[in-house]
């Protein structure tokens, strides 16, 4: 399967190093808990920035006859080495305010020592250190190539953190967790590489050299440590190490290591004899060690542990996606020169390829000469009568990896064959560019071949919609073929629990329509205009219903059909009963809160999302056109609409009843207000349509006439400007 150079590089790097990455990640995740265990010890001193070095040095010199050094480690523990009045050496943790001894310096447990040795060299000494360093470098490259893949998927850096639709568990979390933990993983790998280079002496070595002038090596004026200016102005939080003079000789000096510099201080006068900036390599070494190990920060240690665990998930999910793609491979029985039917597939992760492969196998089983290939491999097909394109859309309107060169090669081939073609697009309504690449492909193919069927767009890999297209294709070609649903069926995924809190009963009076209110068992994010996916028999058969969000609950309007799978399932659910479903985000049909004016057009159960939108409307001037059968049907919604009008969340309402005296439809009401509709569009307003497909077609014809007559524009002009939104079924 053809893949981009970035994906190929990403995969090759992962395959070549995954064993070492697994070992390093497991041991690194364990070691992340060592700094946490240290931080839990009662030796940390708070407010080190309020304690001056002068205070600490003075109290230590008053308490102990001899002080060798003071150190403030990454955990903000104060460590000192002193001799007591009894002549005993004492080292460990001290209180910097009272000089009281707190306890012995912590040593790593034998277990952490063992894991540390394993993490650094895999018990293979220098060779092991080399491979661990190389592993860090390869993981850094994997992170960078993965970043490029995400940027390509999201169509630019600005969209790097844009929402991703959850179409596949492994793919979704591989990308999402990768984005969230990208920076920690890059830091882990980069610091690991730096420490390895340092260990093998491959970095420039820097030494601090002080130059002391004789004029500053004076014993006068002799002042106390508490009056040393450098000690008074240096808070303990800035101190790394203070080495005390070994003798009273004036040439024996304090050595003070601070953040970014090292100083020599006269032990009698407090003068700074020499000041040298800490070499960059030393600073980078210190930062690399702390960032790589998590020393000094519980939160950073926890992030490192999470990142280490997530690297293991990357390996699992990455290989799972790769194996899934490879399972979709096929072997052609006929060559492209003799094939009567050609199937070209565009797939990013292998899902769409499975549909194309199933269609191919059924045609082969029927005795037809079929050739299947990737879209990038388009060529001339001398014997072909039919061309079928089955393709996904990647990211936000782009071609998938194995179709990126299709349109360019199509133009270069300049095909003028007598071929009838059909395009099937797979995508998700949660993306604004739903099946855009399939639509672009169809538009380009029309220049070279004969369109046999309109583009079939399939949401969320619907098995039933694909089966419907196969039936249409079979009728158009007179080639009997069908794909058994079990060959494509997948179990429903990520279903959540919803409790039925209210429901009306369907009856003839209301046209067998009923209202239903559901409450999520757990907090979930959704908006009016999103979809509720219901799996009545807990299998691949899915039914989608437009959501109206009212008072934090889901409001549905459903028509009960005879033998209706979804409507029957919902109608049978009693109040208090739990049903399992999932939210399908549909941002292309959310209420435009920044619009100057909005016209809502609905018939039948299409009113549900609009009621939810209007309940949350507070600023936008809104019109509602509703088409129903009769006044009895209107009784289901009259209370909501009257309340919305009263609260001025809805400004104008027009009702069309098709089975009463005037026998009007929504398109009739739109014609009556043609000038108003034209002015709304002219002012930048938005029209939203929800309901049956037949209503949508009739309304579209009416709107086209209105736009051309009053605005001298086509309806498509306003569609391109996102002023027409629709969700019809």
What do you see in this structure?
With 729 residues, the protein is an alpha/beta fold. The chain has five domains: 5-37 and 110-205 and 294-322; 214-282; 328-487, Flavodoxin domain (Rossmann fold, 3-Layer(aba) Sandwich), CATH 3.40.50.360; 496-588, Elongation Factor Tu (Ef-tu), domain 3 (Beta Barrel), CATH 2.40.30; 591-728, Nucleotide-binding domain of ferredoxin-NADP reductase (FNR) module (Rossmann fold). Helix content is 39%, strand content 20%. The chain has 22 helices and 26 strands. The two termini are 36 Å apart.
Might you state the CATH topology name of the largest domain? Rossmann fold
The CATH superfamily name of the largest domain is Flavodoxin domain
| Count, helices | 22
Percent helix, as a range, is 25-40%
Structure characteristics:
eight-stranded antiparallel beta sheet, seven-stranded antiparallel beta sheet, 729 residues, Rossmann fold, 5 domains, 22 helices
